[in-house]
Amino acid sequence: MLILKLNVMTYNIHHGVGTDKRLDLSRISEVIRKSDADIIALNEVDKDFSRRSGYEDQITLLADELNMNKAFAPSVSIKTNGSSVKQYGNALLSRYPIIRQEVFHFNFVAGLVEGRSLLHATVEVNNKPIKIYVTHLSINPYLHNLQTNYIKQAIHNQSDPFILMGDWNMRPGSRSWKKMHHTYKDVWYQVHHKGGYTYPSHRPRIRLDYIFVNRRMEVVDAEVMNDIPQASDHLPLRAQLRI
């Protein structure tokens, strides 16, 4: 039986603006390059959004710089007076082909649109489909609970190996964490139990960023990367997996 090895990473890039208030997407690409990750989940990615990111298509710039495939899931889309759309959301980079992608928007409460979404992509690794989910959940407890329940339902019958990554805005031991941990593997908890702090990057003391996998995946190692911590207000979390 062929064993597949994967390095994956989740990283909230804060639209490329670091703790020094500088917009510098090259620092983000350097962090990703140093990680040697095959599949990378990104949060707070701008696409022609505003002056804060120079109206750039950040995921395309990163994909071109790193020679990777890309997928993007807008959480916020704002039509301008012309034909263009300003967008902000979650993204995926992959060394392997992305053969399918779809976006789910978390619009559970009528009249309340917070701008959260779930990116679902299928990545083909050596002819084997791997399901990838990327999300960034609400800080509102009520909405967070609804979003967690939705994700659990979406992945409930998933038979393929899958990886669920992103900024969950939750802490270990919380109600939402227990819901996920009861069924799926929290990669950091599998290896280390304690620590794993990713926020704030200059003095991390909170674990907000997570990678969950199903029982089809074996967790080999997990680490919080501290290369160029000023590149974003979060630190990236990387995991080594086997299928």
Task: Provide a descriptive summary of the structure in words.
By secondary structure, this protein is an alpha+beta fold. Helix content is 19%, strand content 37%. The chain contains 5 helices and 12 strands. The protein has helices at residues 25-35, 58-66, 141-155, 175-181, 187-191; strands at 5-12, 39-47, 69-79, 85-94, 98-105, 117-125, 128-136, 162-167, 185-186, 209-213, 218-224, 237-242. The strands form 2 sheets. The chain has a 6-stranded mixed beta sheet. A 6-stranded mixed beta sheet has the order 5-6-7-8-10-9. α1 links the parallel β1 and β2. The longest helix has 15 residues, at 141-155. The protein starts with a strand and ends with a strand.
Give a quick rundown of the structure.
By secondary structure, the protein is of the alpha+beta class.
- Note the overall shape: globular
By DSSP (H or I, 4+ residues per run), the number of helices equals: 5
Order the strands across the largest sheet as they lie in space: 3-4-2-1-12-11
Helix-strand category: alpha+beta
What Rg do the Cα atoms give?
A: 17 Å
